Structures are given as C-alpha cells and as structure tokens.
Amino acid sequence: MTPRKLRLAPLTLALAAAGCALGTQRFGREIDESRISSLEVGVSTKADVLAVFGPPTAYSHLPVADDEEERRKRERERGHELEPEPEPPPDAFVYQYREDRESFFTVLLFTRFRREVLTDRLIVFFDEQEVVRHLAFERETGE
After folding, report:
1. What pTM does this model have?
2. 3-class DSSP state for residue 51?
3. Dihedral (C-alpha) 122, 124, 125, 130: value to the nearest 10 degrees?
4. At a CB cut-off of 8 Å and minimum separation 6, what does 11 contact?
5. Residue ranges with strand state E in 14-142
6. Which of 37, 105, 119, 136 is an S-S bond match for 20, by CB 3.0 to 4.6 Å?
7. Ordered structural domains, the chain, with CATH
8. What are the tens digits of pLDDT across the range 41-86?
C-alpha cells in the first residue's frame, strides 16, 4: 500500500461508518386556520364547531377553582345550608396537531441527535348553553 492510500484509509473508514437521517412524524389532523373565522363567539354552537373541525382531539371540563371548593367545605363543616351546587364548568374542545422533527448524524462513535416537537392547538370554550364563549389558537408548525 502506498503512503497516500494509508493516509486515506482512516478517512474512508470514517465515511463508510457515517450515517445521517431526517424525518418528520405527524400526529392528528392539521388545523385549517382560515376556518376559525367561520366561528363566532356568542353565536356558534358545539354543533357548528363539530361541523367545521370534526371531532376534537380531547374533550374536557374546566376545573372548579380550589377556593370555591374550600369555601363550600368550610360551610358544610359549620352546618350551614348551602345553595345548590353551581352548574358544571363550561366545556372545552381541544384540537391538536403535532409534528416531531428528528435528525441525526453519526460518525464512528460520535452521534448528534436533534428532536423538535411543534404543536398547533385550537381550544374552543363553551358556556352552559353549548354556545362558543372563547377561542384560543396557537401555531408552532409554520407553513
């Protein structure tokens, strides 16, 4: 083997052992931001939201404030009559779309891994009559 080939051998071996990959995994349905404007606070209903966006990723009740629960507990302990339990808190539909972007590069024993998780989230809050009370939207994924 010539001296030049001997010098290139480690480089050739390193390149042969190198690898890289890029990928994006997607979870959920993309949220069409232009459709949000078709919903009107105080007018649109749960049925309207379902017609525009379909079933939510999650469905939840807003938590009752801790101070209200504590007040009711103290009143019961004192033997006071309490007013009827308040109506359940408003419901919320959560629509979520997530992208996990991953890349890695490796050469021999060196590896560089990067993961970026980006989430678009639309939350629609309803009052007791199932009318939209508030909308919140956040986009992280970009175009």
Report:
1. 0.66
2. helix
3. -160
4. none
5. 19-27, 58-61, 91-107, 110-126, 132-138
6. 105
7. 29-98+117-138 (3.30.1450)
8. 999 999 999 999 999 998 887 665 566 667 777 777 777 666 655 6
